[in-house]
Protein 1
Amino acid sequence: MIVLTRLNRAPFAVNPDLIERIQVTPDTTLVMVDGATFVVVETMEAVIDRIVDYRARVIATAAGRRVAEGED
């Protein structure tokens, strides 16, 4: 999950795997695969950076568990 901020400054978490697209109109709007939309204060670039960081953490966590379990 990544944490973003609604326009009313309320933080919320969203599963980045369910984001279909991000558009700027001029506010940054997330369009989810189920058609739901969320308008956030973060820029499109910031949202993409958070998604990249999230996916890197997932990969690093999985790799760390493989090492801890003695797998190659």
Protein 2
Amino acid sequence: MQYSKILALATLFISTTIAAPLAERACAYTCGSVCYTSSAVSAAQAGGYKLHEAGTTDNSYPHVYNNYEGFDFPVSGTYYEFPILSSGKVYTGGSPGADRVVFNGNDELAGVITHTGASGNNFVSC
């Protein structure tokens, strides 16, 4: 009886210890062939929102995203776009790459979009 309780607790401990790191590495969004974890998306959003809130930009980001493509975002706008980098670092200037996080003025995530696979200067959803 006692053995089964210990085994159950050990199994629970091992499965949650392993599951947390695996969940962290799971793709929350895939832009082209680039996998972004939820923590990478959150970091990019936080970096963009911090600049937005301060009224400053890095290489003109963040800036208003006009949603010409007509995405049905789960939050209301005004929307802002900010680069998300495949390196995992938060954008601080230079080439923004193809991928963007989109958030609103309330710091709510609208989505992740990319130029990869889109025509011209348009975006597609990740």
